[in-house]
Design a protein that fits this description.
five-stranded mixed sheet, alpha/beta, 326 residues
């Protein structure tokens, strides 16, 4: 694997990244020392790729082969498996699934807006709700995830009254609790308000249940993966993502461990504490929310992944490495 410690980041992000990654930043990025003793584990994050097909196909294939060489337990794909102006039909989705089949380790996928929400656009002209049904049929036919190796997942559809939401999934590793939540870009599909409202209720319930379980099981970390950049639409406590951001903030004050929020959507590598006021360093509503770390994975035109190492014995719990093919 090749790592890029000199990746350019927004000006306000760099100091936060330095705080998170020090003292593991040297000439490159290295996993915590405890990893060598088997006290930690790693997983991959990828998303918003590959967009420019077929030109991107050789690079994407090389990146998957690079990922397959690594030592990690699974890969999380946070959606937008294609660009937002190309066909959404079954043939395209089956082609995308064939790429998932190349991953040696399990893949846990949460959909993005490009796969269904935006399929109404001129030049595509497909029904978003019909495409959502197809996504669920093609990618979520059982509770075993994707990739060459299976992973057993708890699905919201199987353990709650929200029986349509097969894509909201949960699993654990060590003392860390993981969950995907189906939150998409394009303002969370507010173009179809009935669908957006119903999914938002399911998502809020799933997120709350995940933290309840984490506290009951005495987890030391919670990892939430979704697609949308919930901070890109103005005030995160207002608008289409407000219920999700409010639950995250509320739960962070009641959870003793560390929280990692993973998303994509705006295609930049960002690692920060998103609920902290970075300009004034003043607490928000009396809280700093310092136990919430955000990872946005890079996306098109880049073909890159991020390796996340989890060590629940370390104070910060999470460390990060960018992975790409030179």
């Amino acid at each position: 694997m090749s790592f890029a410690p000199k990746t350019r980041l927004p000006a306000l992000v760099a100091p936060i990244l330095a705080l998170i990654l020090a003292p593991i930043l040297a000439f490159g990025l290295a996993a915590p020392a405890s990893a060598a003793k088997g006290k930690s584990f790693s997983f991959m994050v990828i998303g918003d790729t590959a967009y420019n097909v077929p030109d991107d196909d050789p690079r994407y294939d090389a990146l998957i082969r690079q990922i397959n060489k690594g030592r990690h337990k699974f890969t999380i794909h946070i959606g937008d498996t294609k660009n937002g102006h190309s066909t959404c039909n079954d043939a395209r989705q089956l082609e995308i699934k064939s790429w998932f089949d190349k991953y040696r380790q399990p893949v846990i996928y949460t959909p993005g807006d490009n796969e269904w929400t935006d399929c109404w656009r001129p030049g595509i002209g497909e029904d978003p709700l019909e495409r959502l049904a197809a996504i669920r049929r093609i990618f979520f036919s059982d509770n075993k995830g994707l990739g060459q190796k299976s992973i057993k997942l708890k699905r919201q559809s199987d353990v709650s009254g929200f029986t349509d939401y097969v894509e909201n999934q949960r699993w654990s590793r060590g003392r860390a609790q993981f969950a995907t939540v189906h939150v998409v870009g394009s303002l969370n599909n507010l173009r179809l308000p009935d669908e957006a409202e119903a999914r938002d209720k399911a998502n809020a319930a799933w997120l709350g249940d995940t933290f309840t379980l984490a506290k009951k099981k005495n987890r030391k970390a919670v990892v939430i993966a979704l697609h949308a950049n919930i901070f890109a639409a103005g005030d995160p406590l207002e608008g289409p993502f407000s219920s999700i951001t409010r639950i995250l903030r509320e739960q962070s004050t009641e959870f003793d461990g560390q929280i990692l929020l993973i998303h994509g959507d705006t295609h930049r590598l960002i690692i920060d504490h998103p609920f902290t006021n970075l300009l004034t360093e003043a607490p928000v509503d009396g809280h700093v929310y310092e136990n919430i770390t955000r990872l946005e994975t890079p996306g098109a035109p880049f073909l890159r992944a991020v390796k996340v190492t989890v060590d629940t014995r370390a104070p910060a719990v999470f460390s990060f490495q960018e992975v790409f093919v030179p």
